[in-house]
């Protein structure tokens, strides 16, 4: 209900105010970013202010290491699957697949955790990996962009060269 009802209401309301939205062009991007920031902030506050959270530095480091390993593994696997020999994906498709299939948002994860584990005293502890996963995917993405971009550009150039018809040779 926390996730589905607002989506349904938004779709219904949009039908009636579409013209107004197209004329006014409200800053939904900025509003969305502010709401996401508020959700992340309140979740961090709830998590680390909870007296039931007993998380030492070593455990936190292990969690961060596991999350980075899982994230890199998923990105690598999606890269391998989308670049197989018989794959029809373009290099740009591959980049989109690698990032879109492995990146998840707190805006859906936190409400789901709160619904599934409502009333559970260790909810804060359960939400720690999700709180780390979100910044980890942003950090990994920013670190991998130069490498992935150069791969994509070189791959696109190679594809253009192989697709060009060969000019007849004059003797």
Question: Which structural category do the helix and sheet elements fall into?
Answer: mainly alpha
Specify the helix fraction band: over 70%
Write down the oligomeric state: single chain
Q: Count the domains.
A: 1
Radius of gyration: 22 Å
Pfam families: SBF_like
Organism: Serinus canaria
Family: Belongs to the bile acid:sodium symporter (BASS) (TC 2.A.28) family.
Keywords: Membrane, Transmembrane, Transmembrane helix
Write the SSE topology.
Elements: H1 4-24, H2 28-49, H3 57-82, H4 91-102, H5 106-116, H6 123-163
Helix pairs in contact: 2-6, 3-4, 3-6, 4-6, 5-6
Q: Briefly, what is this?
A:
The protein has 171 residues and is an all-alpha fold. The protein has six helices and no strands. InterPro entries: Na+/solute_symporter_sf, Put_Na-Bile_cotransptr.
Keywords:
mainly alpha, transmembrane helix, Na+/solute_symporter_sf, flat, 171 residues, 78% helix, single chain
Question: Would you give an account of this structure?
Answer:
This protein has 171 residues and is an all-alpha fold. It has one domain. 78% of the residues lie in helices and 0% in strands. The protein contains six helices and no strands. It has helices at residues 4-24, 28-49, 57-82, 91-102, 106-116, 123-163. Helix 2 crosses helix 6 (123-163) and helix 4 runs antiparallel to helix 6. The radius of gyration is 22 Å and the shape is flat. The model has no long low-confidence stretch (mean pLDDT 86).
């Amino acid at each position: 209900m926390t996730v589905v009802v607002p989506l349904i209401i938004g779709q219904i309301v949009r039908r009636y105010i579409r013209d107004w939205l197209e004329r006014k062009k409200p800053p939904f991007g900025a509003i969305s970013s502010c709401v996401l920031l508020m959700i992340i902030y309140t979740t961090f506050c709830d998590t680390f202010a909870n007296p039931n959270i007993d998380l030492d530095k070593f455990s936190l480091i292990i969690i961060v290491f596991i999350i980075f390993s899982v994230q890199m593994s998923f990105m690598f696997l999606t890269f391998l699957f989308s670049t197989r020999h018989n794959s029809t994906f373009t290099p740009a498709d591959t980049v989109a697949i690698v990032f879109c299939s492995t990146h998840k948002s707190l805006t859906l994860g936190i409400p789901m955790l709160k619904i599934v584990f409502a009333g559970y005293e260790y909810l804060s502890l359960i939400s720690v990996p999700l709180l780390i996963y979100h910044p980890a995917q942003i950090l990994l993405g920013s670190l991998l962009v130069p490498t992935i971009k150069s791969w994509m550009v070189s791959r696109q150039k190679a594809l253009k060269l192989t697709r060009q018809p060969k000019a007849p040779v004059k003797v």
